From TrEMBL:
A Pfam family that the UniProt record links to this protein: NAD_binding_10
Signal peptide as annotated in the record: none
Protein's UniProt name: NAD-dependent epimerase/dehydratase family protein
Domain annotation NAD(P)-binding: ranges: 6-180
Length: 283
């Protein structure tokens, strides 16, 4: 059986569904099972991996696991020790493209967090694969959604910043391949979407998906920082995000071929993602 942590998140839901499509048995772990709304074929269990008493029961009978850092926090080392004791063989970690290999020190809190968990997985003695996506297309739900629904105008900094946003279904598709086959052991996959897009491009494509004219309006970085913090983004993480955007102005975003190489199909476009989530942007 395969354990999916963070099973109600954007990526976790897709991992559960795609695994079930292959016929694999799935245990889906969530802190709120009553509200999970996951497929009936999944074994949905409640638990918080930060609590020692929940770890053994979640891992009983598990051979492989999909590990989301949001579900494990600072408990990675003891959780992985229990996983090994319980006979888990393989872990696929949802990491981040912000992690840099071959450097003495990671830059920014996002990279530091994910590198710490990568190191714990690598030291655990389990088989592992690290999946390192860049910008999630789903970030647009929080970054743009409220303003599009309210006014149709998105104010933000660095509208010309180019990223290659990835559909959560593509992240999940790669994770499923790594969970089910041996050809990905020890790999560190950097994942992106199939195209470089500015913020102007992304907002326009969302407008096309919902059949409404929407636009991006440039704002000073100071205003954008305050808006991110007001939405609950920690100040240091908000500063890192704006730093990434500032560095991405005036250049094409690198596009990784990994999704197509691993899944055998082209990565899903942002336009496809916007169409899949159009209702979330409608007032």
């Amino acid at each position: 059986m395969i354990l999916v942590t963070g099973a109600t998140g954007n990526v976790g839901r897709q991992v559960v569904s795609l695994l079930l499509d292959t016929g694999a048995p799935v245990r889906a772990l969530t802190r709120t099972p009553a509200a999970a709304e996951l497929p009936a074929a999944a074994e949905v269990v409640g638990g918080d991996l930060a609590r020692p008493q929940d770890r053994a029961s979640a891992l009983a009978g598990i051979s492989s696991l999909f590990l989301n850092p949001a579900a494990i926090g600072s408990a990675a080392v003891p959780f992985l020790a229990v996983a090994r004791e319980q006979g888990v063989r393989r872990v696929v970690l949802l990491s981040s493209a912000s992690v840099e290999d071959g450097v003495a020190e990671q830059h920014g809190p996002i990279a530091v967090l994910h590198k710490r968990i990568e190191d714990a997985v690598e030291a655990s003695g389990l088989e592992w694969t690290f999946i390192r996506p860049g910008e999630f297309a789903a970030n647009a739900l929080v970054q743009y959604g409220p303003q599009i629904r309210a006014t149709g105008v998105v104010r933000g900094a660095y509208g010309e910043a180019a990223m290659a946003p990835i559909h959560e279904r593509d992240i999940a598709a790669v994770a499923v391949r790594a969970l089910l086959s041996d050809g990905h052991l020890g790999a560190r996959y950097r994942l992106t979407g199939p195209e470089s897009l500015t913020q102007y491009d992304k907002v326009r494509l969302i407008g096309e998906a919902i059949g409404r004219e929407v636009r991006f309006q440039e704002a000073p970085p100071e205003e954008a920082l305050k808006a991110l913090v007001a939405r609950g983004v920690p100040a240091d993480s908000a500063e890192v995000l704006l730093g990434y955007q500032a560095a991405a102005v005036g250049r094409e975003a690198p596009v990784s071929p990994a999704v197509q190489e691993i899944t055998g199909r082209p990565g899903l476009t942002f336009a496809a993602w916007a169409a899949d989530h159009a209702d979330a942007f409608r007032a």
